[in-house]
Amino acid sequence: MSSSILWTPLAFGIVGLFLPKKAVGWWAVFGTLVTLGLAIAVAIGFDNGTSSLQYAVDEPWISGLGVDYSLGIDGLNLFLILLTAVLWVGGVTFAAFREQERAKSFYFLMLVAETATLGSFLAQDLLLFVLFFDLMLVPFYFLFGAWGHDRSAEGGKTASAATLQMIVYTLIGSLLMLVAAIATAVIAADGGHLTFSIAALQEQGLSHGSQQWIFWFFAAAFLVKMPAFMLHGWMPDAYRAAPLPALAVFSGVLAKVGAYGFLRVVLPLFPDATVEFQEVILLIALASILYGSVMAFTQTNVRLIAGYSSVAQLGFITAGIFALRADGSDGAILQMVNHGLVVAPLFVIVAILLERTGTEDIREMGGLALRAPVLAALFLIVALATLAMPGSANFIGEFYILNGLFQAKIVFAFVAISGVAMSAYYALRLYQQTMHNRAPEGLLSREIGLRDGLVLVPLVLCIIGLALYPQLILKRTDRTVEQTVAKVTGGDAPEAQLASKKP
Amino acid sequence: MNFNEPHIDYAGISPIIALTVGICVVLLSAVFKPTKRWAPGLTTIVLGATAGLLIWQWDDPKTLITGALRLDDLAISISLIAILTAAFCVVLSLRERATEEAGSGEYHSLLLGSVLGMVLLAQATNLVTFFVALETLSIPLYILCATNLRREGSLESGLKYLIVGSIGSATLLYGMAFLYGGTGATNFAGIANGIARNGLDGDPLILIGIAMAAVGLAFKTSIAPFHQWTPDVYQGAPTPITAFMAVATKAAAFAVFLRFFDVALGSQSDSWQPALAALAAISIVVGNVGALGQDSLKRLLGYSGIAQAGYMLGGVVVLSASGTSSLVFYLAAYAFMNLSAFAVIVARERETIFGDDIRAVRGLGAERPLLAWPLTISMLALAGLPATAGFIGKLYLIEALVEGDYTWLAVFIAIGTMISLAYYLRVVAAMWMQPERETAPGATPVIAGASPEADPVDPEAGQRWYIVGPALLASAATVFFGVIPQPLVEFASHAGAALFG
To answer: Residue B455: which pLDDT band, with cuts at 50, 70 and 90?
Structure first.
């Protein structure tokens, strides 16, 4: 089952290369829907009661090098897989409603990207994880570079320059991660049988000294991917260059792979180093929250507002994980899903705004709500979810994160709270400037059509659904998270009990 | 009178015999009119026969000609890589100007001569055969580089290679003399014994010998700081020959590198391991930084080859079975990655007026997807991205390095790879991400040594089977061994077992 989820998008992508140009978009939509169906089937059959891997596949792949083709699903990745499947349906459908240049390659790359992303969530072998983590970049490199926007006229970068910058940034992290992953396995094997299986590595354990440097190699890769403060240099240019359907899934899912990597790899494999560097990472996370929020205030490009708000949100998620308490990590996973569900429709709305107004600058927008109340209402729901309005799932996620952080490191929690307040400001500013105020001359204000509604409404329904019933996620992640965190703290994490009682 | 007839293992030397006979046949075929056009076909048959004879000896290690040669799986795997590359070179040379100008028979027999040198070199376990094989390999190459007679660059390339190569050979020979003087033996096992008997402490003779031999080999494998000839020679030589040189010479030279250092000098690894590791690190930095500003694709691949040689030298440094296997794996992967790139360059050289300039591939993605995909895959694989053999090769090498306690060199490989992205992806971006620029009609490209009169444009070159075929084949292999690497890993692990089993 894990294998079929993983390879379905790629199989559809390859077949799509041989279809007529007109059909390939809808074929790709069909492919993402099948994947989503498989993911939902997995979620329905998921057993909440256990923390161990389900739907596990484990075959030797390169036996000489100790690399296994090993996949599995547990509480950590179940909902991230679902999120991936949902967002890809949204992104690809949105693209299919529109004419794409070189459509075959476009959808092929989109589907390759889905397989690579699912692979990095599903992989239970350290090297397979690194492989998919790197592979994710390749399709996005082409998507951003070849279908992106040339900003050189506005004093920005050309699409290929922006993507090159992104690739170099992110691969710096992941190549060092490759060395670190191999070092982990070799050191852990200590001359014995070499294996990259995460579970086996966890049992073998690493000495404290090795953990210290390997931790940073992994952390660097994940922090660049998010991106965290100081490592975000690639983000503004890449976000401005990216084609919007690809950006929606990129921002919605790929950033989370970094955060997920901390939970899947760093916490279980390098527990001593995690405790040792907890505060350093928390500082980076707080800096990301503050910096991302402040930048989101001042930007006028809609994409960058969304981009910087992601930096802040990912800061929250990292802080939740590095509270090293079950409730913090529970909240972090919930928040990863929430943020994905929020940011993807946001970019879809940006694309719709761009079509209406011809600009991405919020100073030149306004008054759209007058004629397009449905669009405005959908946007409002997304905006309110972004600022974690009580009643939204984002509120519960942030509450868990802050609760965990509060009990672990009270000082950090106080600073982080200011981020919550700031998110209200940038989210409302974005909404107000685009939807309210006076409409500039010559602005087309139309209601969204059925085709955009078909993309937006289901995503917004997911947001509302999660707001009503966040236990859907929390109940299933609980066990695994508890166990993951307990490995770091050494105890059986009594505070995890708290997590299952709270709303 | 008693006469002990020496035992001759004809099976063992059959590949060498086949090549030698083949050289004569190909050369003679050009003399007679009816067989004049047969040279490429005959060459391919000779290469195929040699490959078959080598595979026949697989997994049956033996020592030949009183210990002068050793035919084991390392030798066979390296020879097969060289032969495969030569076969690609033959196909890519079809309709190449260089073959016509130099004479098809001569061109192809020289190519076979070089292959003979490589097959010998991969088996050499004696200083004398080592040197003779190296010269057999090199001398035909000096000539082949200069076969594009009407191109200044080609002649320059041949001359440069001759001079620099001779210096390399002379240094190596001088080093060998020192080694012989210090140990009193010419075969590798004898040298190892001699060193073990006398010890290395305070014997400057042997140390100088080792150092000079290393320098000589570094010349041949284009390892920095002995690489200066590489970009110029690569750029000037006819492109099929460049492809052959880049891959096959490197493979053969690394085979003897492994045997010489790991067998003859293995006991004294403390004295040379740090030095070779330093050379590898320098090579990685120099190659990758040098490639950054290159507009000529052949120069770019030349510099990239210097960097890749640095990565591969890591496999020699660690002195282990997994190091050897990873090196052989990387060489095989490197062959596929490079051959598809060179095939595309050949096509564009004949098709456009830009020669091997990066402008020649601009807009290739839209214009000729069947050429753009192989070059893209090749660049991504050289950069070590996943789902290609390049990724698995790096993984294998890094694993060997970390196991051998050379983690710092593994980090160097990672850093080098990051730098390399900048130039590999530049080529990819040119193909897919820039609209094809208008070129003023009749504009002469500003490339050293190119003259449009001497190289008429063949607008169909990019569709001919003998160019598209090899390009697609090599890139398909690159992807195949990136997804299903197990067969190639098995193949390479035999080579590792041959030295350390």
So the answer is: low
Q: How many CB atoms lie within 10 A of CB B405?
A: 11
User: Scanning the structure block, which residue is given the tokens 């591969």?
Assistant: B312
Is A63 close to B486, i.e. CB distance below 8 A? yes
Q: Among A7, A65, A104, which would you mutate to test the B interface (most chain B Cβ atoms within 10 Å of its Cβ)?
A: A65
The predicted-structure confidence for B11-50, as pLDDT tens digits, reads as follows 889 999 999 999 999 999 888 877 778 889 999 999 999 9
Strand-strand pairing, B62-64 and A67-73: unpaired
Measuring CA to CA, which residue among B387, B389, B409 is closest to residue B398? B409
Helical segments of A190-301, H only: 198-204, 208-225, 235-241, 244-249, 255-261, 267-269, 271-276, 278-298
Among all residues of chain B, which has the CA nearest to that of A63?
Answer: B486
Spatial contact of A310 and A339, defined as CB atoms under 8 Å apart: yes
What is the percent of chain A with per-residue pLDDT over 70, rounded to a whole number?
96
B chain contacts of residue A64, beta-carbon cutoff 8 Å: 325, 486, 489-490, 493
- CB A65 to CB B493 under 8 A? no
Entry pTM = 0.92
d(Cα A303, Cα A348) in Å, to the nearest integer?
11
According to DSSP, the residues that pair with B296 across neighbouring strands are B357
Q: Kindly list the domain boundaries of chain A, sorted by start residue.
A: 278-503
Contact call for A64 and B418, based on CB within 8 A: no
Cα radius of gyration (chain B): 22
Contact check, Cβ <8 Å, B410/A182: yes
Distance from the Cα of residue B229 to its chain's centroid: 15
What ipTM does the predicted assembly reach? Answer: 0.89
Domain limits, chain B:
11-435+449-500
Which of residues A117 and A472 earns the better pLDDT score?
A117
Nearest chain B residue to A175 by CA: give it: B414
Distance separating alpha carbons of residues B418 and B431, to the nearest angstrom = 21
- Over residues A341-363, the mean pLDDT reads 84
pLDDT tens for each residue of B102-125? 888 899 999 999 999 999 999 999
Mutation choice for B interface testing from A7, A102, A149, A186 by most B CBs within 10 A: A186
Nearest to A183 among B366, B402, B432 (CB): B402
Nearest by CB: A138 against B385, B411, B489: B385
Instruction: Pick A174 or B474 by higher pLDDT.
Output: B474
